[in-house]
Model the fold of this input.
Amino acid sequence: MAGCVVTDGYENACEGDLARVVATLPRLGIDVPVVVCVATFGHSDDLALRRPAPAVPQRAFWHEADLGPLVLWLLLNTRAAAAGAWLRAGLTERLALVEGGR
Amino acid sequence: MTSLATIDLAGFRLGTPQRVDNLTVVPVFGPGYPGVLSPRDGVKLVRVDGYGTVVLRNPGSDGRVGLAIVPLHVGYVQDGAQNHALCRSAFLAPGQEVRFEDACCVQETTGGYLTERDQWFFTLPLELRAAALELRRQGSYSKLWPAIERFNRGHGLRARGHLELMLAGRRAFLTQYRSRLELVAGQLGALFVLGGRLVGVEVAPNPAYFADVWPALVCFAYGPAAMHSRGDAAVAATPYEASTVEELVAAREAQLRAELARVRAVVDAAARDWADPDVTEEERYLDLRLSTVVGSGVAGQIVSDGARPVYASLFVREMN
Done:
């Protein structure tokens, strides 16, 4: 299980709110990893102002080709029991694609 | 109209504030005024006819015919041409072409004249707007250069009458304000609060009009001052005082209410500082009046139909 926040990375209601909410979760007995997925306009976006919770793992995505690696990254950051098997299957598939291209 | 006291704000209301850096934007909602085209449809740059003279036309668009109101302090930037900005707003009747012989050049060095090929526009930065308004009806094209030099120096740029140093040099940062602060559906205006002070009030005739001027306002009119005032300190991720989900929700709602109260106090304070300015009529179009507002703390222009506000661009006269 993991909490995945999909956002453009800009926070304008109360600055720092997401970071504070994530920091509060353990006090509520909620112990899940949280990650931030930032939708970008392209691969060269400047994300300096788009890290709403700097202490939380963050990954950007843009093109449809980014979704595969994004899912693998999510699996790395989840504690779901089946995550390891899914990750192994996904990485094995990518390895096979690379080896098949030799 | 000779006094702002007669303006009737019935039907207008404020939305939820948004804040980035030290800039808070409060959306304004209200009744749209019929028959006014957005700048995209009704305000086209035809050409610059010589330094200091800008020609605009209201062509309508896709069969839409209507009055156009030139946004206050609009300016045009093009490669290879000398950039110009206007010192005042104006009415453009359907099909009408108007020569503004009191425009100001905002680029000291590059020669050439603007033509119709690019309609991208900016709004003069807040720090220059009172000076530009005072210079309306004056014919010198270089009249804003001293103010631009001071503006550039204040922002750590080279002291030249060259607004490109900000518009192009800081563009990558400034243009992010249109994403960091979001246009809200149905919004037709905004209050701009910098730190603890109301610095601007912008009201458009309708949401389409406001959507057209929003990027120019938030990025280039208010963006430079916001960029200048931002601190470097990262906000600490202090946990909320909560031990249940309900308490967390309540704590966040309380934080929003506190921000709302802060903004309301700022607006109330401005209502006193901005009280009783001189209001001078400049132009008429049927029932509409375009007036210039100058008070001790405020300046700008408004369009009204009787007591009803149709367009307003008001700002602080001094930044400090």
User: Anything to note?
Assistant: The mean pLDDT of chain A is 91.
